[in-house]
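Lecture notes, unit on protein representations.

Consider one protein chain, 148 amino acids long.
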Amino acid sequence: MEIILKQDVNNLGLKDDIMVVKDGYARNFLIPKGYAMMATASAKKVLAENIKQRAHKEAKIKLEAEKYAENMNGLKLTIGAKTSSTGKIFGSVNTIQIAEALQGHGFNIDRKSIRLQEDQIKEVGSYKAKIKLHREVHVEIDFDVVSE
């Protein structure tokens, strides 16, 4: 079934993307939750017109995201965590702590746009995180986890 996404859906697509998904996924989850609508001919025409009108605004937003990414390039964060004597962290380092560290450097980033390269960070060391500023603009930052 062809659908048009009304908002970003993790592991599926971004807003206004036309996707092909299984019928049950569309009818039982995406459409009732308001995440998508069926891609009829008239809906596609409306979508095309909306995209055309938003193209100029999108270019401006992308340019701002690229400037933001340029400012973030080369940034190295240090995140403190309580650790045992062997260097194991009590708990784990997550995107919330990275977002707070970025905010301390003057970058207001939502934690949901931060992706860690490893599932869980449970030891002291150097790691990388990928930050999505825009559909097409991504920044990779390095951060160190140190013992407090």
